[in-house]
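The instructor's notes for this session suggest beginning with a concrete chain rather than abstract definitions. Hand out the sequence below and ask the class to guess, before any prediction is shown, which regions might be ordered.
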Amino acid sequence: MEQQQEPQAVATSMGGGGKKASATARIGGSIISGFCEIGIFHPVDTVAKRLMSHRGAVAAEGGSGVSLSTNQIIFREAANEPLMKKWGSLFPGVGFGLAYKILQRTYKFGGQLYVRDAVAYRFGDSFTAAFGDKNGKAMMHAFAGSMIGVGEVALLPLDVLKIKAQTNPESLKGRGVFNIFAEEGFALYRGAGWTAARNAPGSFALFGGAAVARNAMGLKEGQTPTWVQSFVSSVAGATASISVASPMDVVKTRIQNRDFNDPRSGSAIVTDLLRHEGPGAFFKGLAPKLAVVGPKLVFSFAVAQKMIAMIDDRLQK
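After discussion, reveal the predicted structure:
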């Protein structure tokens, strides 16, 4: 009976608090979190995607020749425009991004807890025997996260359209959403294998790294963390996730931002990348992602956690 009761203590909001939130509260809190996150962090995501998509060397500011400066790569046609126009140029694909982020946050943050429950119920004793009590719980969080990460492939078309709008908008000009889905069909799932290969270790590191950090700070399962503890665990998990997934993320982005009629496979893109840009290209865009990954995940964790708790309290009144 103890094995069956344990999941109920941990299937709470993302902070790991004491009571189990309702499904309605989880969904509502995740939707609000997605709205807030995309509004604040979509421009940073655009910067990272454009840096990852750029092929070739980066010239010094004010330089001439074939190479583009960082300013030209990031802001493109708005490179010489005033600050506010530059800022506005970082919001292409925000509609696709909003739909993707809301569905992703709801699926990932809420769904991981349910998968973790199932893993603990069926295989909890095996994880504890193999890794010990604390590490076994962390590994269950990581394993559940990895499974959820692979399932995110179902949302790939929205991510593809968001990235194309950010990095290759010409491929979408004059085409409606329904027209794109009707014409492209399964072409929108290009790179699904690479996306799964990126999400599995990335989500494993995200949830596992956060769980290990909580253990290191002495937090027990079901114990509500402080804001500082939540910040530290989120940064640890997110930094590990982004670093581990970066090479696959670059390949995935290159696959998704190319023209729809580009027949190259993921393997061909990897070969071209190594031949023309070298191994360092696998980590393009890593710095801006790491620079905001802590605040971004702490923000989304905090908003979702508070909103889930508030909605759940209202529903119980």
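Then share the key points. The longest strand covers residues 58-59. Strands lie at 58-59, 68-69.
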